[in-house]
């Protein structure tokens, strides 16, 4: 009886050791090993890969590092510029890449600076005008604050309905852009 318990214990130990060895050998070839996002919080990273911002606005880029010197650089400072503290300023519409250089590697973040093609539109009743968001090709959600004065289609075509003033709102990736519509 005692001998069978010992053999049973050795068999269980052998199979557990065999399974662990196979897992150690095969782990580098699995998707879990290649998926760096599982371990991303322990490595150097920026708070986002893509930033959408309005022309003339600023935002802060955060870098998760411990005791390392960092330099920031914009590939096109005419579109978006960044200072030594990670504050991004949207200068003109378009997109650019922000490079965050550390001792070991370079991290990248795409910045889209967006704006409407017109700030104010004057039109007559029944007249149509197109609004566009410059700086991105992302999907835009259009809305008129008062549809009895001006209507807008899902493609940004504004039509004057009756005399008055209203705003057309464009929403892109969490950013709200407004255009004043004056119908004569």
From TrEMBL:
Residue ranges of domain BIG2 in the record: 110-182
Transmembrane regions listed in the UniProt entry: 7-29
Keyword annotations: Membrane, Transmembrane, Transmembrane helix
Protein name per Swiss-Prot or TrEMBL: Ig-like domain (Group 2)
């Amino acid at each position: 009886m005692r001998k069978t318990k010992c053999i049973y214990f050795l068999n269980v130990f052998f199979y557990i050791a065999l399974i662990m060895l196979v897992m150690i050998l095969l782990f580098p070839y699995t998707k879990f090993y290649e998926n760096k996002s599982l371990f991303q919080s322990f490595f150097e990273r920026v708070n986002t890969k893509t930033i959408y911002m309005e022309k003339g606005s600023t935002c802060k880029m955060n870098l998760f590092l411990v005791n390392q010197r960092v330099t920031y650089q914009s590939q096109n400072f005419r579109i978006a510029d960044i200072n030594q503290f990670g504050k991004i300023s949207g200068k003109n519409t378009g997109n650019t890449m922000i490079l965050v250089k550390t001792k070991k590697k370079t991290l990248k973040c795409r910045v889209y600076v967006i704006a409407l093609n017109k700030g104010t539109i004057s039109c007559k009743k029944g007249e149509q005008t197109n609004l566009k968001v410059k700086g991105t090709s992302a999907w835009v959600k259009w809305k008129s604050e008062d549809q009895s004065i001006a209507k807008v289609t899902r493609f940004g075509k504004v039509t004057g309905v009756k005399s008055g003033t209203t705003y057309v709102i464009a929403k892109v990736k969490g950013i709200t852009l407004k255009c004043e519509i004056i119908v004569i």
